[in-house]
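We emphasize that the prediction below concerns an isolated chain of 315 residues; any contacts that depend on oligomerization or on bound cofactors are therefore not represented. The input was used exactly as deposited, without trimming of termini.
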Amino acid sequence: MAHLVETMAFVGQTPWHGLGNQLSPHQPIEVWAQQAGMDWRIESSDVSYMAKNERGQSIILPYEEQRVLYRSDTHAPLSVVSQRFQEVQPLEILEFYRDLTEQSGFELETAGVLKGGKKFWALARTGQSTALKGKDVSNGYILLATACDGTLATTAQFTSIRVVCNNTLAIALRNGSSSAGVVKVPHSTRFDAEKVKQQLGISVRAWDEHMYEMKQLSQRKVTQQEAAAYFDAVFNNTSLSIAEQDDSIIQFSSTAMWQMKPMQPIKLNRMDELCLKSWICLMVRDGVQNSVQPKGQPMVCCVASQSLSITNVEP
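Result of the prediction step, given as a token string:
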């Protein structure tokens, strides 16, 4: 499955994939570890290989330059790494938040294991939030994620994305690719939680800068012609091959966009895979249809039986 979730726990709204254990707020770290499936350790063993001696007998020889990482609970292999690789334990990810949740008003919201244990994360709400036009609320989170297969450095960052799966984790990491408000610890060095917190402490301004950008976007008036041109440029990308255009999960018809009957907008609950950094709604579900209502009606993005009313479209 695209979400790659093995186990997870969450507070609040159920994730889009419907998986995970729902917790009541303010649970201790120990409960989170158990319910999120993060109460195991990464163990290691030297790599060995089988060969045959001159008599044709099988012999097992060590390969001392690398180690196999495996789960302590299932003994399932996770990766083969060098002797210099510094793994970060699942419980270390959760322990990062202990003082933040017990003393600083942070609240764990999601945590879980991806790809069979090769990647895991935890996400806590900072208490910072801002309401934009249309009553859309953007929350501030602090994310800590790592991987033991060499695909991700241990990364701590501020984000507005509610991470609930591999997809939303990728979006959050991509949006945090700039240096502001992001601390990355390569696996060649030991993870020091206190040092990371100190580095993040001088980068809190990243949230204020992010909210300034969002407010500027929410104030921007969009005409029907601009909306049509934007959707046409985004969803009908002529730089793609014909096959890629046919396979696109999002299609936009500029000829039919003004022919829709008026619809009653439905208040959309905040979806976990939705990042509203502008008035554009990007969906990653099959059968997505995007359209703009006739003059005088709100612009609507329809997904199955849900729709998002965007109120700052000028007639």
